[in-house]
Amino acid sequence: MVAIWAAFTSSVQDPDYWWHYRVGRWMLDNGRLPSTDLFTYTATGHAWIDHEYLSEVLIALLQGWGGLAAVSLFFGALTWAGFWLIYKTAGAGRRPYVIAGLGIALAALAGAPIWGPRAQMITFFFACLELYWLRGYLQGRSRAINWLPLAVALWANFHGGFLVAYVFLGVAIAAEAVGWVLDRRDAAHLMRLRTLGRVLGLSLLAALATPHFYRVFLNPLETLSSATQRRLIVEWFSPDFHLTVLLPFLAAILLLFLAFALRRPAAYDLFLALAALALSLESVRNLVLFIAAVTPILIESLSATWREESERRGWRLPGATPAPLFAALTALALVVIAGASGYRIATALAHQDADTRASYPVAAGDWLRAHPEVGTRMYNQYGWGGYLADRFYPDASRRVFIFGEATLMGDRLLQQYQDVQTLRRNWVQVLDDYQVDYVVYNRDEALANVLATEPNWQRVYQDDVAVIYVRKT
C-alpha cells in the first residue's frame, strides 16, 4: 500500500487537463458556469452542459495554490484512498498477506494506462466507496449504503461517471432478486431488495441536485450513444491486448476465470464481475471500474480457495512472535520502500516541464505568441486543443478548431476534423469552409507531410514536436 502510491502520482499528462483548468479558472473569475463554448470558432453556438464543473473548480484552486505538483499529489492521494477502500472491501487484513498483497499490486499495474491527475479518478474513488458500502450491507455488517444518495448528489457535480452508481446498484438488486426467487423462505433477500430499491430511487433523485437538473443525465448518455466519439476518441476504444501495458489487465481477467473455476462465486460476485468485465472490454477508460469491482472478488475467492485446500491437505505454517531483529528489518524495509516511493514521486513531478514540452506544442506556442500577426483561424491536433485553449484564451485569433469536450464539439465537427486528419477526399474543402489559414499539427504526421507539398501552404515553424503551416495569400 505504501509502494503503490508512486504508481498513482505522476506529472500532468492528460490532454483534457488544460481546458478543464482553464474552465475552472473562468468560473472562479466570472462566478458562473459556462453556458456555451468558450474556446473554438467552430462550435461557438453549442450549448454546454458542464457536468464536471466542481472538478474543474477544484483543479483551478489546487493549481492556483500549489501549481501542477499540488494537482498531481491530490489525485494520487485520491486514487490511493480508492485502493484503501478496495483493501477494506476485500477484508485484506484477514486474508493471507501474499494473496492480498499480490492482488493489490496486480490491480495497481492493471490500471497503469489510466492512473494520473484526471477527473476520472473522482469516479474511481466514489465507485470504490459504493462497492465497499454494498458489500458491507449484503454481508450484514453495515447499513452505510443508505448514505449513497448523498454521495451520488456530490458525485454528479464532479463527474459524469456517476451513472455507474446505478449499474452497481442494479447488479446488487439482480443478485438479491435471484436469491429470493431461488429461496423465497429467506425473508432477508426481500428486505435487502426493498432497501436497495429505495436507495436506487433516492439516488436517481439525488443526481438532480446539480445546476443542470435533469440535463445532468444527458451529457453522459450522449457520449455513450455517440458512434462518432466511440470511433474516433482513443480512450473509448476497446483494450488492445497487444500492448504490453495492458498485460496485467489480461492477467487479472485470466485469474478471475481461474478463481471462479476453482470456487463457485456468489451471485453478487458473479454478476458484478461480469458487468465490470463487459464495461472494461467495451472501453479501456472503464478499466478502473473493473479494478474497483473485481480486485476484492479475486482476493476473497483465491484466499478462500487457499484456506480450503490447506485445510484439506493439512498444511500448517508455524506461527511465532516476531523477534526484535525481524521487527527491525521489517521497519527498515518499510523505510526503504517509503523512501523509494517518495523519490519516484519527486522525480516524476520534477519532470513536469519536460513532459509537457515533449507532449504539447510549447515551443510552437511561444512562436505564435511572438508573432501575433500570423493567422486568424487555426486547425489544430485534437489532443492539443485543450493546451492551446488554456494558453491563448481569450485571444480571438488563437481560438482552436477543436478540443477535448467531444459532446460540446458535436459529432459533425468531430467527423470533419477526422476528414482532414485522415486526408479524405473533402479535407481541403473542410479547411476552406472554415476559412482555416494556419495549421498547428504534429511533425511528420500525414497531414503535415501533405501540407509540405501543397503550393497554397507554407511552413513557417518546425521543431521536434510541432509544425506550423500558414495559408499563402
Shape: globular
Radius of gyration: 25 Å
Number of strand elements:
4
Order of helices and strands: HHHHHHHHHHHHHHHHEHHHHEHEE
Fraction of residues in β-strands: under 5%
Sequence stretches where pLDDT stays below 50 over 5 or more residues: none
Strand order of the largest sheet: 1-2-4-3
Counted by DSSP, the helix tally is 21
Q: Into how many domains do the coordinates divide?
A: 2
Q: Give a short account of the largest sheet.
A: 4 strands, mixed
Based on secondary structure, the structural category is: mainly alpha
Question: Between the first and last Cα atoms, what is the distance in angstroms?
Answer: 61 Å
Overall mean pLDDT score?
Answer: 92
Helix content: 55-70%
Structure overview:
By secondary structure, the chain is mostly helical. It folds into 2 domains: 306 residues, no CATH class; 112 residues. 62% of the residues lie in helices and 4% in strands. The chain has a 4-stranded mixed beta sheet. A hairpin with a 3-residue loop joins strand 3 and strand 4.
